[in-house]
């Protein structure tokens, strides 16, 4: 909720904003200019972060091709120099070529920080066809019923996102899958040869403080992955002398990144990750996301990062007081069905606990159970119909603008990166469409809030 609030405040801030963030969606929503500070160079681009990333990749490709052409020219020139420098009548010509090469300004190719990092999980050992199977599961803590009637079956190699409103029992359910919590009622079985790797927010407590960062990984790494340990640590922000630090002197964020890094080394066939991106920057998130997408085991992930979850899972399961509800597709489809622009916006809508629901005895409808007169009810129903139309209208508008934004992205990919004028014009056009879409999303959110308010008052 705090991210939603901050985004709304900054959207309407009249002055300039210098924003540093690891949240890609947050950056794309709020910024119109991107400045990257590299090792020896600063890159300044008039456009949001995602558009800047596209431009940087194209710029690297252009530089790489220019460097290849220049290298060929240098080799050809050096051949001429070697051919003529020993001949008296051509010695002067050879010297002029040497001076020409000395004055030649070499084309430098910008180093992509994660260009060499293509980490993949070790092949997952084969498990049974069914990973988890739950039937009629109920979980209570004293008088509080968290959920009941929960049915769940997960097949081998399925990748699912687990979501739920605040207090719905996401963590409780994952702990039950790990046999760390017992069901109050019902059955929950784990399949054959299932080996679970779990990342929780308190995972750092399991680290040995007397080991070094590199030693922590060397202790558990096996096979070819041992050759990639320093590169992998670099992707999680440990580089140079950092790998020789003792774990006990690391900050909380560094320990969390190391714990996640360590988890990736073991050949599990099931991963359950709870908020794995909390302490990761954009580069590290991207590395982890690609590793998870190529993971050939089963995955359950809990995260508030919409960009991280996008295009990662085939299914979304919503934890509700009455069990699990399945949604086909990734988090984008789920949020679209829930009329929410982000996971935090969806979670902000309150659930009614089961205990509270049961405490309310069914009421026999009276002549005027709402306390409204006939005329007032008629006016309210009219307002609800109008609010529904507004929600559908703005939802359609957002969908159209998403398509338009995608078309702009495709068009930008076709432009020659050396044509700075055209790239700048297209970046401004992209920004204009993005701003229009954000305005439409804001209107849609207002319409949804109005509809919710009218229906709850009914």
Topology of this structure?
Layout: H1 2-11, H2 24-30, E1 34-37, E2 42-45, H3 49-84, H4 91-103, E3 130-141, E4 144-155, E5 159-164, H5 170-177, E6 185-190, E7 196-199, H6 213-218, H7 229-235, H8 252-263, E8 270-274, H9 282-294, E9 298-302, H10 306-309, E10 315-320, E11 323-328, H11 331-337, H12 343-347, H13 354-359, H14 374-414, H15 420-457
Parallel strand pairs: 5-9, 5-10, 7-8, 8-9
Antiparallel strand pairs: 1-2, 3-4, 3-6, 10-11
Helix pairs in contact: 3-4, 14-15
Question: Can you put this structure into words, describing what you see?
Answer:
The chain is of the alpha/beta class and 458 residues long. It contains 15 helices and eleven strands. It has helices at 2-11, 24-30, 49-84, 91-103, 170-177, 213-218, 229-235, 252-263, 282-294, 306-309, 331-337, 343-347, 354-359, 374-414, 420-457; strands at 34-37, 42-45, 130-141, 144-155, 159-164, 185-190, 196-199, 270-274, 298-302, 315-320, 323-328. The strands form three sheets. Strands 7-8-9-5-10-11 form a six-stranded mixed sheet, with helices on both faces. The chain has a three-stranded antiparallel sheet with strand order 4-3-6, with no helix packed on it. A hairpin with a 2-residue loop joins strand 10 and strand 11. It is globular. Mean pLDDT is 81; it is low at 113-117 and 360-368.
